[in-house]
């Protein structure tokens, strides 16, 4: 039986039409920002229970979000905020950790990025969502001043659905945390 979290994680990992490559009229698609990276949870990244150190997971998430924001903006970015981190399940030593992120909203110089972390135990054919968070990045120029970012476009229904789900989840977290 697949949980809602697993279905959401799987949907986030399946960006259709990622090959859209035109940045016309100052627009960049959600798919162009999509980033996915994997690690194996090694002993040096675990606590005394053999589970992932929260700080290591946050570090990986920040890097994933930074790559997504740089791909979207076409240049340097800096982390402005990390909010709504939820550790949903532990990650055990030896599991494959996959992080996926994409830009789901923009301001004049800022981008909101959703990052989802899943853990995979291949021998058990098991995949589960373990952590999610929302990041805000600001685009900067060579002098470290802010610079404008392109508008966000969704190239297809799947990208539009990912964006809408991220916006809803982000809003829900704001309402819960006040």
TrEMBL record:
One BP annotation, GO: fatty acid catabolic process
Domain HotDog ACOT-type: 31-143
Xref: PROSITE patterns: HOTDOG_ACOT
Membrane-spanning ranges: none
Xref: SUPFAM superfamilies: Thioesterase/thiol ester dehydrase-isomerase (SSF54637)
GO cellular component, one term: cytosol
Keywords of the record: Hydrolase
GO molecular function terms listed in the Swiss-Prot or TrEMBL record: long-chain fatty acyl-CoA hydrolase activity
CDD domains linked: BFIT_BACH (cd03442)
Keyword Hydrolase belongs to the record: yes
Any Pfam family: 4HBT
Protein name (Swiss-Prot/TrEMBL): Acyl-CoA hydrolase
Originating organism: Halococcus morrhuae DSM 1307
């Amino acid at each position: 039986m697949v949980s809602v979290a697993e279905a959401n994680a799987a949907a986030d990992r399946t960006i259709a039409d990622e090959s859209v490559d035109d940045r016309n009229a100052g627009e960049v698609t959600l798919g162009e920002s999509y980033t996915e990276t994997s690690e194996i949870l090694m002993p040096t990244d675990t606590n005394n229970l053999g589970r992932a150190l929260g700080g290591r997971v946050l570090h990986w998430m920040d890097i994933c979000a930074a790559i997504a924001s740089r791909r979207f903006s076409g240049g340097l970015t800096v982390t402005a905020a990390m909010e709504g981190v939820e550790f949903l399940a532990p990650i055990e030593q030896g599991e494959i950790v996959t992080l996926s992120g994409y830009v789901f909203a923009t301001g004049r110089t800022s981008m909101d990025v959703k990052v989802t972390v899943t853990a995979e135990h291949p021998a058990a054919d098991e995949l589960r969502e373990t952590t999610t968070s929302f990041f805000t990045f600001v685009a900067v120029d060579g002098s470290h001043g802010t610079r404008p970012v392109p508008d966000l476009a969704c190239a297809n229904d799947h990208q539009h659905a990912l964006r809408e789900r991220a916006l809803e989840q982000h809003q829900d977290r704001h309402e819960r945390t006040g």
